[in-house]
Write a structure and sequence with these properties.
CATH class: Mainly Alpha
Strand content: under 5%
Structural class: mainly alpha
Distance between the termini: 33 Å
Number of domains: 1
Helix content: over 70%
CATH superfamily: MFS general substrate transporter like domains
Shape: globular
Oligomer: single chain
Radius of gyration: 18 Å
Order of helices and strands: HHHHHHHHH
Number of helices: 9
CATH architecture: Up-down Bundle
Length: about 190
């Protein structure tokens, strides 16, 4: 529930933020559908490479930190104002890191689904549980943005990542990821 919260918390307010600081809808759409799409595709590839290059626990941590850091680009844009290059950088950074986080998170959820008879059910339940953060926990984002202003809001949206990062470290120290690797190895021996 917490892993993608930093990304979603900021993401639900990106459109209102961009329009509120003075961008027109056409410019915003062009940047999101242009460089934003390319950044998402590249981020998906980078996420796959990251998930294969390092242990899953470390890949989750790296991707989580990257997602949080990307929110600072919108704080920078709030300070910068209407600047199309700045918007392209902020959208590209957010889309790239979000895609990395999504790919690594899907790899983690997939690693949790071990029962050959119930994999689809397990995955569906885990993704539904993960959606709680996107749907309910991020619903207060608008109230917070209005209360503190855009620059501070996006800084705080980066701080929202801390509980998930602390939980990841705790899981790693309590051998959660080691047990996943052992289970995977045991299932591999059955083949």
């Amino acid at each position: 529930m917490l892993y993608k919260l930093t990304d979603t918390f900021a993401g639900v307010m990106t459109g209102p933020f961009v329009l509120d600081i003075g961008f027109d809808k056409a410019s915003y759409a062009a940047i999101v559908k242009g460089v934003g799409l390319i950044a998402s595709l590249l981020g998906g590839v980078a996420g796959g490479l990251l998930a294969r290059a390092m242990p899953l626990s470390r890949a989750l941590l790296v991707a989580g930190v990257l997602q949080a850091i990307a929110n600072f680009t919108f704080s920078w844009l709030a300070w910068l104002g209407v600047n199309h290059l700045g918007l392209a950088i902020a959208i590209s950074t957010e889309n790239f890191t979000s895609a990395i986080g999504t790919v690594v998170f899907v790899a983690y959820l997939s690693a949790l689904c071990k029962s050959p008879l119930h994999t689809a059910t397990q995955y569906a339940l885990l993704t539904a549980l993960a959606a709680i953060g996107r749907t309910y926990l991020s619903s207060s984002a608008g109230f917070l943005a209005e209360a503190v202003g855009w620059g501070t809001f996006f800084m705080l949206s980066a701080v929202v990542a801390l509980p998930s990062l602390v939980l990841l470290v705790w899981l790693q120290r309590n051998n959660h990821f080691a047990s996943l690797a052992k289970q995977e190895q045991a299932f591999g021996d059955l083949d």
